Amino acid sequence: MGDKIGNRRGCREPSVRCAAAAAIAAVLALVGAARADDYPSRSVHVIIPFGPGGVTDIVSRVLFDAMAKVLGQAIVIENRAGASGTIATEFVADAPPDRYTLLVDDPSGPLATGVSLYASRRIDQLTRLEPIAPFGTTGAVLVVAANFPAQTLADFVALAKQKPGELLYGSTGIGTPGHPNGALFDRIVCIDARHVPYRVGSQGVTDLISGRLSFWIIPLAAVLPYIQSGQLRALAAAGEHRLRELPNVPTVKESGCSNYDVSSMYALFAPRGTASDIVGVLKRATDQVLNDEDVASVSAKPASN
Fold it and tell me: Does residue 196 sit within a domain?
């Protein structure tokens, strides 16, 4: 009898547990749905790892102005510059997944270079961030001052080889995209140029226009007005294709050098552990605003060849 009772209980317990598990799952599903339905219920905080006025800042503000209207809540942008973007990246990676703290980052920027440059990082950014959606790319160009003696990229390389260590190129800080962009270009064309980091990109552009800097390999959006006004001259597009805005400017490869693509990408991230339904809400909102021509046009796109 004992065995029969024991067997009978053994059969019933799993079914009770299964029923309880099913009930819990149903409740969690309802909670998740409700959480997504009322999200966001307050303003969303977005961290940008660079100073105001830069390309990442400009592109992000256009995107989030539009997203705020879609989501029905304000999106508050905070610029947290420092340590080549790593300070802001770590801040968000270390934040609780409360759905209201997000990060804009360039996967080729702090997320990539921080691993090599900052071995003492407290946390692994790559495993503590949840990708939500990419929202733009910006082509890059090699630019010089209008009165720089080289008129073509071939002339520029020849001049640089005649003056090893004398030409200066800029970036917005050690490890930011402009730094490895310039170092890689040096290696590809076998020149020896010196890196000059700036805390604020606009200061570097001012020095470039005045001739204190020799060149900068920089996202087009940061310098297009100066190229159009004649203060700067683009020698080459640093991507796979020519840029739509500068169809007469050849690529680095077309100019006789190796293939060289250092276009920037912008993407939205959340702390790891952010609920998948919330990630879905944010991704759909991002996709929706990117269908707006005014938003989409902010990112420079390659011209077809």
Answer: yes
Q: What is the CATH number of the domain that holds 132?
A: 3.40.190.150
- pLDDT tens track for 165-190: 999 999 988 878 889 899 999 999 99
Query: What is the C-alpha separation between 160 and 148, in angstroms, rounded?
Result: 12
Please state, in angstroms and rounded to a whole number, the distance separating the CA atoms of residues 191 and 262: 18
Task: Write down the pTM of the prediction.
Answer: 0.72
Q: How far is residue 196's CA from residue 178's CA, in Å, rounded to a whole number?
A: 10
As a whole number of Å, the end-to-end CA separation of the chain is: 85
Residues 281/133, Cβ–Cβ less than 8 Å: no
Domain identity same for 127 and 166: no
For residue 250, tell me if it sits in a domain.
no
Q: Cα torsion for 289, 292, 294, 298, to the nearest 10°?
A: 60
Are residues 113 and 194 both part of a single domain?
no
